[in-house]
Amino acid sequence: MRIDLVSGFPEFFDVLDLSLVGKARRRDVVDIRTHNLRDWTSDVHRTVDDTPIGGGAGMVMKPDVWGRALDDLIGPSTPETITLAIPTPSGRPLTQRLVEDLAIRERIIIACGRYEGIDARVAEYYRGHGVRVEEFSLGDYVLNGGEVAAVALVEAVTRLIPGMVGNPESLVEESHGAAGLLEYRVYTRPVSWRELEVTENLGQQHTTHDDPEYSHGNTE
Ligand code: SAH
Q1: pTM, rounded to two decimals
Q2: Segment 175-186 mean pLDDT
Q3: How confident is the model at residue 187 (pLDDT cuts 50, 70, 90)?
Q4: What is the full DSSP assignment across 68-102?
Q5: Is 87 touching ligand 1 by the criterion CB < 6 Å?
Q6: What is the dihedral of CA 71, 143, 99, 21, to 10 degrees?
Q7: Closest residue by CA, ligand 1 atom 18
Q8: How far is the CA of 174 from the centre of ligand 1 (A)?
Q9: Ligand 1 contacts CB of residue 141 (under 6 A)
Q10: Does ligand 1 come within 6 angstroms of the Cβ of 114?
Q11: 215 pLDDT more than 60
Q12: Whose CA is nearest to atom 3 of ligand 1?
């Protein structure tokens, strides 16, 4: 799988050199490329935003700059092989179902907005040209930019790529799987810690979404 991340602040993606994702990149299990949106600007100030048409606060990211970046990254590929993921607070919630679906895609390009977001015609254009456009939200709150949401997507999706997680068994009973269970509480040694004992009937008990302790408001 190849994942391209595009942002005006690509340094955000340095975390993807660490831990499991970093190792997988070095072992060529996944091909992750990061790009600076400003490389596709055409003015001396490397402008990526402009004032909103129709007024309103803040700035909007320019469709022409995004269009050049995305055309370059899509290149001669068949549009149907590409998923364009656009983080936005008004998008579809990033659930494990969506993650499983994305994990079998050939290529994902993640377009990270800033300011008031990306001109809406960008999603519309690529959707109209056969690209699968997935506008997704990390949750019901507003971040400063799409980069954190992009990193969350990359972590969740790459976990499911064969060869990524050292022990694939650990994925079988993972929370939010097809059975809708949440992983049981986990413990390790020492068995007795601060007068709290790990007894036999602790652990190995799944909870479900109906459990009162589970209150993420997930309606799936
Ligand atoms: N004014 C916009 C928010 C812009 S936030 C609104 O009210 O909808 C700027 C950028 O941060 C967005 O374009 C998006 O890329 C990202 N972002 C903010 N919150 C997000 C969330 N909950 N999930 C995914 N991306 C988010």
Answers
A1: 0.90
A2: 81
A3: very high
A4: HHHHHHHTTS-GGGEEEEEEEEEEEE--HHHHHHH
A5: yes
A6: 80
A7: 143
A8: 29
A9: yes
A10: yes
A11: no
A12: 116
